[in-house]
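As promised in the previous annual report, we have extended the structural survey to additional targets. Below is the entry for Putative zinc-finger domain-containing protein.
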Amino acid sequence: MTCEELIAHLSSYIDHEMDAALVAEVQEHIAHCRNCRVVLDTTRRLIVLVHDEGQRVIPADQRSALFERLHQAFLKRPQASNESAV
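The corresponding C-alpha cell record, generated without further manual editing, is:
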C-alpha cells in the first residue's frame, strides 16, 4: 500500500468499514510510515475533539471535502527520509 492509497482509505479505516485484508495492508503501512501515522493520529484526535464538544456534526459533504483537503496537503508534503511505501 502506498501513502496515497492509505489516505484514500483513511475515512473507511477510521470508521471500521474495511475488509480484514485491507485493514491488514493499512496496519502494515502505518507500521513503517511515520507520515501516515501522524496523519492517522491527527485525524483521530480531531474526531475525538469534535465528538467531545458535542456541538458540531460534520456533514458528509464537508467531511469528504476535509478528507480531500488532507489528501491534497499530504500529496504536497515534503518527503520524509524514513518513509517507505510498503
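The mean pLDDT is 86. The two ends are 5 Å apart (CA to CA). These points will be discussed at the next consortium meeting with the crystallography subgroup.
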